[in-house]
Amino acid sequence: MSNRHLARAIAMQSLYEWDFYSGTRDLVEMAKRNLAEQPESFDETDFCLSIVNGVADHREEIDKAITTFAPDWPLAKITTVDRNILRIGIYELLFNFDIPSKVAINEAIELAKTFGGESSGKFVNGVLGAVYRDQLAKGVAKDSDKPKDKGDEPAGEKKERKPKKSKEPTEE
Question: Is the pTM of this model over 0.90?
Answer without folding.
Answer: no
